[in-house]
Amino acid sequence: MKEQGGSHVRTTAAIIGAGGKMGARMTANVRNEADYEILCCEKSEEAAKRIGNEGLTVAPAAEAARRADIVVLAVPDRLIGTISRELVPFVKRGATVLLLDPAAACAGELELGEGINCVVAHPCHPPLFGEQTTDAARKDHFGGIAAWQDFVIALVKGDERAVEEAEKFLKTAWKPVRRAHRVTLEQMAILEPTMAEVVAASAAVLMKEALEEAVKAGVPRDAAESFMLGHAQIPLAIVFGAVSSPFSDAAKIAIAWGTERVIRPDWRRVFEPGNVRAAIKAMLHPEKPR
C-alpha cells in the first residue's frame, strides 16, 4: 500500500521472481530508494536463500500481491498465465500488474481482474553505438547496472495514471535510463519477438554459425573470432549510420550475392500480424506442433 510519513508517500512494489536475473537487478536498484517499499517473492529455495543473505526478506506471493501498488511479474513468459491466475485474485483494485514482455498479454493468456491496471514494458538494453562514460558501463551489455538504456512501455488495461506510475518505477528499477518510449502492445510485439529475436537474434546466431564453418574449413579459431567480431562491427556501423563511410563496390556485390543465397526472399512476412502471433504462440507453448 502507499504509505505516507509526513509529506512523503511510498509506493509498495512486489517483485514476483525477485531471484531471477531481471528480478534481482530490479530489486538491487530499488531496495534503498526512499520512494519504494520492495516485497521480494521467490519460489526457488536457492534463490530465496540468496535473497535472504543479501539482507532482504522473501514474502509469500499472495500476501505481497494484497499489499502492493505495483505487482511486477519478473517470471518466464510461459508461466505468466498460470501465475496471474494464482495471484490476480489477491491484487487490490487500483493496483497495477506490470509485465516485462508483451507475449502473454498479446496471446490473451493473462488473467486480469476487474479494476486492476496492466502495463507492459521492456528494456531496450544499452545501444551498440551509444556513448557510455565509464568502463563499467561499457561492460554492462544487459543494462540496469552502469550503462544507460531506454525502454518501451504500453498500457494494456486500465488507467493512464498506471503508465505514469510504472514509468517512474522503471526509471529507478532499470537505471540509468535515458528515455521511455510509449508504444502500443501490438507495436511492442513487433519489436520483440519479431524484430529483436526472430530477425536480429537469428542473424546473430547465423554469424556465429558462419564463424564455426570457417573453423571447420581450417581457419584457426582465434583468427576467425578476431576477424568476425571486427568485421561484424563495420557493416553495423555503416547501415545504422554510426560512420559516414559507405560499403565498397566489391562489398555491395558480395552483399547482394549473399542475400540471394542466405536470406529467404519472403523474410519480411514475419512482420505480418498472423506471423507475429504465431511466433508468440511458439514461444509460449514450445511443446505444441508448429
Describe this structure in words.
The protein is 47% helix and 17% strand. It is of the alpha/beta class and 290 residues long. The chain has two domains: 3-183, NAD(P)-binding Rossmann-like Domain (Rossmann fold); 190-284. Strands 1, 2, 3, 4, 5, 6, 7 and 8 form an eight-stranded mixed beta sheet that branches. Strand 1 (3-5) and strand 2 form a beta hairpin.
Q: Which short descriptors sum up this protein?
A:
290 residues, alpha/beta, Rossmann fold, 11 helices, 8 strands
**Rg measurement, Å:** 22 Å
What structural category characterises the helix and strand content? Answer: alpha/beta
In CATH's first tier, which class of the largest domain applies? Alpha Beta
| Fraction in beta strands | 15-25%
Shape call: globular
- Enter the CATH topology name of the largest domain: Rossmann fold
Kindly state the percentage of residues in helix. Answer: 40-55%
**Could you state the CATH homologous superfamily of the largest domain?**
NAD(P)-binding Rossmann-like Domain
